Structure formats: C-alpha cells, structure tokens
Amino acid sequence: MSNFGLDEALGAHGGKVIRAPVGDRYVIAEMMKAELNLGGEQSGHMIFRDYTTTGDGIVSALQILRIMIETGKPLSELKKCLVKYPQAQRNLKVSRKVPITELNGVERLRAETEKELAGQGRVLLRYSGTEPKIRLLIEGRDSGRINERADAIAELIKSQIGAD
Questions:
Q1: I need a surface site. Which of 2, 53, 56, 74 has the fewest CB within 10 A?
Q2: Is the Cα dihedral 151, 157, 160, 164 positive or negative?
Q3: What is the per-residue pLDDT across 94-114, written as a single tens digit (0 to 9) for each?
Q4: CA distance 61 to 9
Q5: Backbone angles phi, psi at 134, to 5 degrees
Q6: pLDDT digits (tens, 9 = 90+) for 18-38
Q7: 133: Cβ–Cβ under 8 A, 6 or more apart, which residues?
C-alpha cells in the first residue's frame, strides 16, 4: 500500500517497487524470494534484512541517521526526493465477502479508473483479512477526481453488500 510517489522516486534512480500482500510476513517472504534487503509498509514498518527480518524502529532510525551523516544533509532536505500522490481511501463494512469479480459493475469501474490513471496512479481493492470490511485505495495526481471515483466505487459496493 505504499504511496505511488515511491514508485516514481525509486524509478528515477533505477529502482523498482515490488508489491506484496499487506502484512510484514508477506513483505519479508517477497524479500526473501527476490533476495532483497529493504522492504516496508505504508504503516511505517521498515525491514532491513541485513540486520533483522522484522520491522524495527530503532534500526530504521539508525539507517536514516547514517544517511544524514554520510550526505551531510538534514532530513528535511532528504525527504524532498519523495513527492506523495493524493490518496482516496474508503473502508466499508460489508455484510458478506463475495468475490470482488462477482460484484456487478465494480470490476468494470475499477478497470476504467486504472485506465484513466494511465500508469500515474493505481487502484487497490481488497477485503480486510481481520474485519468484515472491504478496503479501497485510489492514488493519482488529481485529488478531486480520485475522490469522485472512490465515491462511485464505494456506492456501488454498498448497494450490493454494504452493512450498517
């Protein structure tokens, strides 16, 4: 669920974001499979596999301090390399968890939204693994437009499986 701005920042330096299902265990599994040493989640969990296989705030802080010392730049300057995209999130209670592909019109609207974003944003739609909810995240450059799209998809979902 990392911000799409991360894709652009890493891409500008020859890197690439590899996505995994939500959860540290999935992130570390993907890291092991691809032999990567840095991973994390939007929640702020950072995994530095050279030091540990779990998110560790102290290791994260030490790595940031190391970079600040090596570059001689303050964090306020270093963080400018990441320009975050606006996000529209909807967490909707559902009465049941039917396959998303069986929700009338939802997959079509999701695909139309992704096409409209044209590689400059994304749509993530998934059920919560721990709650009776469906989670929708849309990222793109135009905050107003992604909120319109998120509202339309959310209303369509609520009309079919929404719960009070």
A1: 74
A2: negative
A3: 999 999 999 999 999 999 999
A4: 20
A5: -115, 140
A6: 988 888 889 999 999 999 999
A7: 91, 92, 93, 94, 127
- Look at residue 52 and tell me whether its pLDDT is greater than 70: yes
Tokens of 25: 């265990």
Q: Please, is 101 exposed, middle or buried when counting C-beta atoms within 10 Å of its C-beta (0-12, 13-18, 19+)?
A: exposed
Rounded Cα distance between 160 and 8, Å, is 36
b/e sequence 32-68, b meaning 16+ C-beta within 10 Å: eeeeeeebbbeeebbbbeeeeeebbeebbeebeeeee
Q: Which residues contact 89 (CB under 8 A, 6 or more apart)?
A: 135, 136, 137, 150
* Position 27, amino acid: V
Are 109 and 156 within 8 A, CB to CB?
Answer: yes
